[in-house]
UniProtKB/TrEMBL annotation:
It comes from the Bacteria. This is PorT family protein. Keywords: Signal. Pfam families: OMP_b-brl_2. Residues 20-180 form the Outer membrane protein beta-barrel domain. The lineage of its organism: Bacteria, Pseudomonadati, Bacteroidota, Flavobacteriia, Flavobacteriales. It comes from Zunongwangia pacifica. Residues 1-20 form the signal peptide. InterPro entries: Beta-barrel_OMP_2, OMP/PagP_B-barrel. The keyword Signal applies. The keyword DNA-binding does not apply.
Length: 205
C-alpha cells in the first residue's frame, strides 16, 4: 500500500514537469516540522517536532512567476504527555501520536524581488504511517492505529529566499482542509485538522 502511494505521488510529480523539461529546475529540500492538530474539537499546545524531506521542480512561466510541484515525506501528529508513574510500560516523558504523509503540493510561486518569493497552493497528501509511539526517543514502543483518512486535501503558504548559488531557505504553514478522521471511525464526527509549521533549507541544481 505504501509503495503504491509513493508511486502515485511520483507520477503526479512527473506528469506536472514532463511538458517543461527544458525550462524547469530540479531541487532537493528538507527541514523541521512543528506539527499539531487544530479544530473545534481539539486543543493542545504540545506539538510534535519531526522532519520533512523531498524533491521539487520549479517551472518558470513568466519573469517573476513559476509553478513548483513537490513530493515530500512529512512527519506529523502531536505530543501528549502521559507519565507512567510505576513505569509499567517503560514510557518516555511524552508519547507521540504520529501521522506521517507523502505530501504532493503544487504551488504558485511569485518573486517579490530577486531571490524572495511567496508560495501558495493546494497539497495532495497520502497517509503512509499512523501509530502511537510511547518511546519516541528509542526503538520500539509503537502501537499501530488506523483512524485517520488515507487521503487529505490541504493547502500550503509560505516565504522563500533563494541565493544566487542555488541554496534557499524557507518557512511555511500547511493546513489540512479535510477532516482528519475517517467517517466510520470513533472520531469521525470530530472537527480536527492537521496544522504544520515548517522551516527548511534546500538546493536547486
Amino acid at each position: 500500500m505504501k509503495k503504491s502511494i509513493l508511486i502515485i505521488a511520483l507520477l503526479l510529480f512527473g506528469a506536472t514537469t514532463m511538458s517543461a523539461q527544458e525550462a524547469w529546475n530540479f531541487g532537493i529540500k528538507g527541514g523541521v516540522n512543528f506539527a499539531n492538530f487544530t479544530g473545534d474539537d481539539f486543543s493542545s499546545d504540545n506539538s510534535r517536532t519531526s522532519f520533512n524531506v523531498g524533491l521539487l521542480a520549479e517551472i518558470p512561466l513568466a519573469d517573476r512567476f513559476s509553478i513548483q510541484p513537490e513530493v515530500m515525506y512529512s512527519g506529523q501528529g502531536f505530543d501528549f504527555y502521559e507519565r507512567d508513574q510505576d513505569n509499567i510500560f517503560d514510557t518516555d516523558d511524552n508519547v507521540e501520536y504520529q501521522v506521517d504523509y507523502i505530501n504532493v503540493p503544487v504551488l504558485a510561486k511569485i518573486y517579490l524581488v530577486d531571490g524572495l518569493s511567496v508560495q501558495a497552493g493546494p497539497s495532495f497528501n497520502f497517509k503512509v504511517n499512523e501509530e502511537i509511539d510511547y518511546q519516541p526517543t528509542q526503538d520500539g514502543g509503537d502501537i499501530d492505529t488506523d483512524l485517520a483518512r488515507d487521503f487529505e486535501f490541504g493547502g500550503v503558504a509560505g516565504l522563500e529566499y533563494k541565493f544566487n548559488n542555488g541554496f534557499f531557505i524557507q518557512g511555511r504553514y500547511n493546513y489540512g482542509f479535510s477532516k482528519l478522521y475517517k467517517d466510520d471511525s470513533a472520531l469521525g464526527d470530530s472537527d480536527i485538522h492537521n496544522s504544520v509549521w515548517q522551516a527548511g533549507i534546500g538546493f536547486m541544481f
